[in-house]
């Protein structure tokens, strides 16, 4: 046994497979021993606490360049996003990468990878967004794979989707044939446009009507089409931020037939309902898809318990409160998204494990292991076993705290969960053997996060 750099003493190690109390020995950024007599120059006590694999949030929106312009935009770059993530027990981020007007998906991927290399503290991987699947874009798929990319993002609610639907079907096929998974935002453009037009004609354009402008039907129809893409091409798809009981039923039926469909939801849909949009500051809750009804909330929790939903990710897209509450915004002109990186894991533990009986193993699956498998990072990440990256979170399952937006690490100055009483919180986060967060303080430095060159995704069985 080589000399250890770090030992985590006395914690309950939770993986998707087991819970065991043992010490963890770390050397050269890897877990090298679990259990037995372990000593090192640096030791951290986890006695009475949980030790979880570092979380993997496969769906965030971080700006690699925070331009000083008059136009409001998401306010976290890879540095601030990393700080929020690490404070929330998340050690790896999957960022949606948008191409500029003169870029292809691969050139955008290269630009953002270089920017993140100087900014990120958390490790990261990238999802290039495809707005128009031209022959040039299709030709880049093998090159993306060769450079460690394992995914492409498709926006169904964009006006560019239906005019190029045949090409998007081919994109899904070629992605699957070349080892990439296609990520789908499932909302139908035509149905949303019609609903918005009807509301506008009736003079109901306030954001209090936002859920009606993007109805459940729009999500259901788009989810059916995305599932059909997967079935027609025999290529895997990953449906992001699923919000409704009816859309989940579409996915459950497809999974039962072994169609390669993987499902993500996000905290907004587990903790809030569309009633929040009726508040005085209801616009701060606007996300896409919109908040739904309590019956949808219950269905999503059931989907997490049963395994129909594979992951919970944040879709972290942070704004300043003044920009979200801009009085000029309405259902035709809005700023979607909320911050969520620091609160996701604690609230899932508090609301899911403590109040709804979600198992600790299932908590680890939906916040780490399954994302690692889907995006080709497992077993390097997503678990705690000998040989894996030492991405470890010491989680105090008894620590009570109150959510306060102004104290979060994100540049966003509010939280949609302001004032919520939460039990459970990360107190130490370790990324590849280095302590990067401890007792409320970020220790890790910008530029130490590493791009994750994925293997071929084994997917989930």
Write the layout of secondary structure elements.
Elements: E1 6-9, E2 12-14, E3 19-21, E4 24-27, E5 30-34, E6 43-45, E7 50-53, E8 55-60, H1 78-87, E9 90-97, H2 105-119, E10 123-130, H3 135-139, H4 141-146, E11 151-155, H5 165-177, E12 181-185, H6 189-201, H7 210-213, H8 216-233, E13 237-239, H9 245-256, E14 261-265, H10 267-271, H11 294-306, E15 311-312, H12 321-324, H13 344-356, H14 360-374, E16 392-402, E17 421-431, E18 434-438, E19 441-442
Parallel strand pairs: 1-6, 2-7, 8-9, 9-10, 10-11, 11-12, 12-13, 13-14, 14-15
Antiparallel strand pairs: 1-4, 2-3, 4-5, 7-16, 16-17, 17-18, 18-19
Please explain how this structure is put together:
This protein has 461 residues and is of the alpha/beta class. The protein has a single domain, classed as TIM Barrel (Alpha-Beta Barrel), CATH 3.20.20.140. The chain has 14 helices and 19 strands. The strands form three sheets. It has an eight-stranded parallel β-sheet. Helix 2 (105-119) links the parallel strand 9 (90-97) and strand 10. Helix 5 (165-177) crosses helix 8 and helix 8 packs parallel to helix 9. The longest helix is centred in the middle third of the chain and has 18 residues, at 216-233.
């Amino acid at each position: 046994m080589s000399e250890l750099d770090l030992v985590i003493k006395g914690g309950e190690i939770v993986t998707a497979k087991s819970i065991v109390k043992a010490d963890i020995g770390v050397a050269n950024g890897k877990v090298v021993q679990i259990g037995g007599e372990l000593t090192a120059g640096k030791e951290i006590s986890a006695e009475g606490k949980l030790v979880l694999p570092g979380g993997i949030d496969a769906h965030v929106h971080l700006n690699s360049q925070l331009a000083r312009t008059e136009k409001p935009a998401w306010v976290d770059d890879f540095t601030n996003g990393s700080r929020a993530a690490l404070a929330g027990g998340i050690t790896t981020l999957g960022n949606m990468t948008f191409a500029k007007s003169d870029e292809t998906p691969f050139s955008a991927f290269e630009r953002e990878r270089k920017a993140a290399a100087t900014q990120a503290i958390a490790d990261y991987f990238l999802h290039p967004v495809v707005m128009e699947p031209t022959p040039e874009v299709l030709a880049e798929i093998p090159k993306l794979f060769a450079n460690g990319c394992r995914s492409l993002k498709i926006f169904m609610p964009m006006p560019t989707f239906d005019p190029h639907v045949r090409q998007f079907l081919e994109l899904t096929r070629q992605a699957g044939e070349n080892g990439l998974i296609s990520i789908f935002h499932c909302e139908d453009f035509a149905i949303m446009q019609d609903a918005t037009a009807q509301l506008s004609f009736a003079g109901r354009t306030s954001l209090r009507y936002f859920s009606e402008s993007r109805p459940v039907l729009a999500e259901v129809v788009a989810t059916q089409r995305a599932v059909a893409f997967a079935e027609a091409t025999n290529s895997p798809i990953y449906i992001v931020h699923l919000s409704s009981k009816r859309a989940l039923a579409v996915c459950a039926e497809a999974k039962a037939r072994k169609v390669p469909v993987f499902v993500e939801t996000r905290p907004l849909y587990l903790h809030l309902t569309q009633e929040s949009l009726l508040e005085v500051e209801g616009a701060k809750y606007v996300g896409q898809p919109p908040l739904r009804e309590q019956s949808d909330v219950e269905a999503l929790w059931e989907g997490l318990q049963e395994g129909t939903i594979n992951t919970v990710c944040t879709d972290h897209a942070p704004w300043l409160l003044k920009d979200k509450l801009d009085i000029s915004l309405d259902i035709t002109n809005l700023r979607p998204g909320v911050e969520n990186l620091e609160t996701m894991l604690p609230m899932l533990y508090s609301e899911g494990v403590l109040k709804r009986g979600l198992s600790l193993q299932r908590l680890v699956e939906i916040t780490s292991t399954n994302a690692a498998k889907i995006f080709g990072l497992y077993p390097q990440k997503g678990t705690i076993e000998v040989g894996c990256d030492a991405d470890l979170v010491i989680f105090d399952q008894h620590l009570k705290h109150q959510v306060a937006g102004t104290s979060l690490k994100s540049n966003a100055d509010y939280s949609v969960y302001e004032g919520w009483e939460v039990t459970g919180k990360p107190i130490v986060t370790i990324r590849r053997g280095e302590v990067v967060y401890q007792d409320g303080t970020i220790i890790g430095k910008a530029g130490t996060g590493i791009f994750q060159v994925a293997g071929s995704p084994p997917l989930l069985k």
